[in-house]
Amino acid sequence: MTVFVLDGATGTELDRRGVDVGLPLWSAGALIHAPGAVVDVHRAYLEAGADAITANTFRTHERSLLKGGISGRAEELTAIAVTLACQARCEMAPKALVLGSVAPLEDCYCPDRSPDAEICREEHEQIMIHLMAAGVDFVLIETMSAATEAMAAVSAARAVAPGAWAISFCFRSSGPPGVLLDGTPIEKLSPYLGGARFVGVNCVAAPQLSEHIDAIRAAMPAGTSVAAYGNVGYATDDGAWVSTDAVNPDRFAQYAMNWVESGATWVGGCCGTSPHTTRAMAEHLSQRNSAID
Length: 293
Known about the structure:
Elements: E1 4-5, H1 11-16, H2 30-33, H3 35-48, E2 52-55, H4 62-67, H5 74-92, E3 97-102, H6 117-134, E4 138-144, H7 147-160, E5 165-169, H8 186-189, E6 199-205, H9 209-219, E7 226-231, E8 233-235, E9 241-243, H10 249-262, E10 266-269, H11 275-292
Parallel strand pairs: 1-10, 2-3, 3-4, 4-5, 5-6, 6-7, 7-10
Antiparallel strand pairs: 8-9
Helix pairs in contact: 3-5, 3-11, 5-6, 6-7, 9-10, 10-11
């Protein structure tokens, strides 16, 4: 079984490097003020062993740019983000994949703020058109916490990027596994996810991912590729951040091997992870493969 290593966090890694990632633009501001730092982050993940990097497009849709006072630049900044990722790939690992991030239109952790289905379809389709025109290998719909928005994004992906899209969900940290933050269980969505390059879970604390992988595998047809890329910690209800033992790269990599044992074939990092995390995962996978051989 081939396991692909995804990269890790972009925003928190830019922050570590002294780049302003303040809201509402978050990491998108770096495309204007610090494009060199964005390339450096991509290079670092590829050097650490990532098989795929995600372009810095998490907040380049028009809705976020409007909040940041730079509306009308969605296509331009999305193209810049993809170009920077492709530059790093060309320099470091020509066979690596470049994915195009498609994030929730509003707050990832507040599914009730998601717009209605028609608006979601229209706005997600627009950024997907930009991403495909810029040259991503496939579109990554990620951190989806509201079923209506997720299905609208899937509909857009089928129209704009047939056979070139994947989706990853943000699940509840308590209660039954595989339940989106809006309360929708993954099995209700699974009939509509055929054709995805993978179905995954992200933006959940690393120690909790295995049970969500099990839920995805139970809901999806046999043979569906599953992805898992977790956080080093979690946000509390009052917005504070609590780190788990996964903040240690080696411990995170051990969790990632558990995800592989649970059936994940794409593993990587989300909030708080770094190239050190990616390197640890790549090394653990290499050791695992050697043991199997």
